[in-house]
């Protein structure tokens, strides 16, 4: 009733399946714009890019996270990362980066009085990130520290990552 054990074994030992299009190929797809009814004095900007950590090459784990963080921390447009933070300072907001297995979300919330400035900064981060080498290297070092020291210090977080690595190993 359960099927031929040889076939099931062969399926279980099948080679890894190609992950599909690369991050760059997915980003160039036409974005979908969603406008919600007025919900108060805030404006929310969000870009959901279907290229999360599940699309990282086997030899470059963390690439999606590093790329997304560098987009908001290493400068965009004509601004350095520090200048970008200083431009956002009067709005009392900052970028949020959420990296999942399937998506990378870039988010920015600001008051309607700062909507034009926030839209310009958000567009620069999304379309014109600079990826300054010194900043990317600094962010890479911070990410390594977070994995080696901070993750190892939390048994619960480490166990969760080991569980997900086993669960999604062939995905």
Oligomer kind: single chain
What portion of residues is helical? 40-55%
Strand content: 5-15%
Mean residue pLDDT: 79
Rg, nearest Å: 20 Å
Sheet with most strands: 3 strands, antiparallel
Number of strands: 3
Query: Which secondary-structure class do the elements indicate?
Result: alpha+beta
Distance between the termini: 28 Å
Write the H/E string, N to C: HHEHHEEHHH
Query: Number of DSSP helices?
Result: 7
Name the poorly predicted regions: none
Global shape: globular
Summarize the structure.
The protein has 171 residues and is of the alpha+beta class.
Give a structural overview:
The protein is α+β, with helices and mostly antiparallel strands and 171 residues long. It is built from seven helices and three strands, in the order H-H-E-H-H-E-E-H-H-H. Strands 1-3-2 form a three-stranded antiparallel beta sheet, with helices on one face. The longest helix has 21 residues. The mean pLDDT is 79.
Layout of strands and helices, then pairs:
Elements: H1 5-12, H2 23-27, E1 42-49, H3 63-73, H4 81-88, E2 96-99, E3 104-111, H5 115-127, H6 133-153, H7 155-167
Antiparallel strand pairs: 1-3, 2-3
Using brief descriptors, characterize the structure shown.
alpha+beta; 7 helices; globular; single chain; 171 residues; three-stranded antiparallel beta sheet
């Amino acid at each position: 009733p359960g099927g031929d054990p040889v076939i099931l074994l062969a399926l279980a030992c099948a080679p890894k399946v190609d992950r599909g299009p690369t991050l760059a190929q997915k980003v160039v797809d036409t974005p979908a714009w969603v406008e919600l009814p007025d919900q108060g004095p805030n404006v929310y900007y969000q870009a959901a890019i279907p290229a999360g950590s599940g699309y990282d090459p086997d030899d470059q784990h963390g690439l999606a996270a590093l790329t997304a963080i560098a987009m908001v921390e290493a400068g965009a447009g004509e601004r350095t990362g520090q200048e970008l933070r200083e431009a956002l300072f009067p709005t009392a907001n900052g970028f949020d980066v959420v990296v999942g297995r399937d998506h990378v979300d870039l988010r920015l919330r600001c008051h309607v009085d700062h909507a034009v400035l926030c839209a310009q900064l958000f567009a620069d981060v999304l379309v014109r990130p600079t990826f300054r080498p010194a900043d990317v290297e600094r962010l890479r070092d911070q990410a390594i520290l977070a994995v080696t020291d901070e993750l190892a210090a939390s048994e619960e977080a480490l166990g969760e990552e080991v569980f997900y690595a086993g669960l999604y190993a062939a995905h």
